[in-house]
Amino acid sequence: MRLERVGRIELVYTEVDEEIPFSEGGLVYGILTGKIEGGEMQGRLHATNHARQRPDGVFTPALRGVVTTDAGARVFFTMDGLSVRDPAAQPPRRVVTVGLTFWTTDAALKPWNEAYFVAELEGGAIGESWGVVGPLYRCVAELGAK
After folding, report:
1. How much of the chain, in percent, has pLDDT values that exceed 90?
2. Could you list the residue range(s) of the whole structural domain that residue 38 is in?
3. Which residues, other chains included, contact 23 with Cβ-Cβ below 8 Å and sequence gap of 6+?
4. Upstream peptide bond of 87 is cis (omega within 30 degrees of 0)
5. CB of 51 within 8 A of CB of 64?
6. What's the burial of 75, exposed, middle or buried (CB within 10 Å: 0-12/13-18/19+)?
7. What is the 3-state secondary structure (H, E, C) of the chain?
8. What is the CATH number of the domain that holds 30?
9. Given a cut of 80, is residue 22 above it in pLDDT?
10. pLDDT for residue 17 is more than 80
11. Exposure on the CB side of residue 122, measured as CA atoms within 13 A
12. Residue 80 — pLDDT band, cuts 50, 70, 90?
């Protein structure tokens, strides 16, 4: 398998509940908006995040949302992964690695239904809020290429 860079994602919290601590970690729920720039997948993102914080401080983002493309297509997506604090960074930041899936009935976007994507995002202050930004990659299977 190889990774093919297809674009960029940016998401910013518009609303977030305070972190709810538990003895085995914590929980954060928030709403994010942003944009995706990825070839034929250009548009606005809207998602909710139900992230758990493990006892070691690592968050496990679990986003579910919708892309509305500039062409008018509606695309559902999932985004799951790990958000790890960078202890040396000033100002504070997190390294967020996620896997994404997309699904839509729009025929032009069918290839997005049939691929797995990963993103390597930097989390930190964006304007007055917090969010993530970084490159988006398509995982390209090479098993059948031999």
Report:
1. 71
2. 2-145
3. none
4. no
5. no
6. buried
7. CEEEEEEEEEEEEEEECCCEEECCEEEEEEEEEEEEEECCEEEEEEEEEEEEECCCCCEECEEEEEEEECCCCEEEEEEEEEEEECCCCCCCCEEEEEEEEEECCCHHHHHHHCCEEEEEEEEEEECCEEEEEEEEEEEECCHHHC
8. 2.40.160.20
9. no
10. no
11. 9
12. very high
* Average pLDDT of the residues in 37-54: 94
User: What are the structure tokens assigned to 82, written together?
Assistant: 């790990």
Show the tokens assigned to 118.
């990963």
Q: How confident is residue 94, by pLDDT bands cut at 50, 70 and 90?
A: very high
Closest CA to 46 of 23, 69, 19: 69
What b/e readout covers 108-128, taking b as 16+ CB neighbours within 10 angstroms? ebeebeeeebbbbbebbebee
Contact by Cβ (8 Å): 13, 129: yes
Instruction: Name the token pair of 23.
Output: 């003895």
Our count of domains for the chain comes to: 1
pTM: 0.91
